[in-house]
Hints:
It contains 5 helices and no strands. By secondary structure, the protein is an all-alpha fold.
Amino acid sequence: xxxxxxxLMEIFSNPDVMHTLSFGEKMLASTITMIMGLGITFTVLxxxxxxxxxxxKVLGTGKKPAAAPAxxxxxxxxxxxxxxxxxxxxxxxxxxxxxxxxxxxxANNLVVKKITRLSGDxxxxxxxxxxxxxxxxxx
Length: 139
């Protein structure tokens, strides 16, 4: 096969003739192939991103939800018992604000009746995590 009028990429694409290339020519052809592949991939990804952004604006799903109002910081306290009460109160306020933001409702309509702190290492989250770890080791 006459390779005198073939381009480097044509020679590189033919496995019968490719062995005649030098190491430098093979590396150059590999680099060109890699750059073309990356270019095509990123071009398609950018087109998909643009398409999703346009569809989000057309369908109105690109709107960001309103931020929840910030909870007021508790006043500084000196005793240990009052510090724990203040942190529990701020925890309740944060939970109430998160639920209100999730539901899109006003925080005044939300009533938190009881929040109890679990003690010890065997909390429901800890037990669930331990069961998950044991299940993955059994399989």
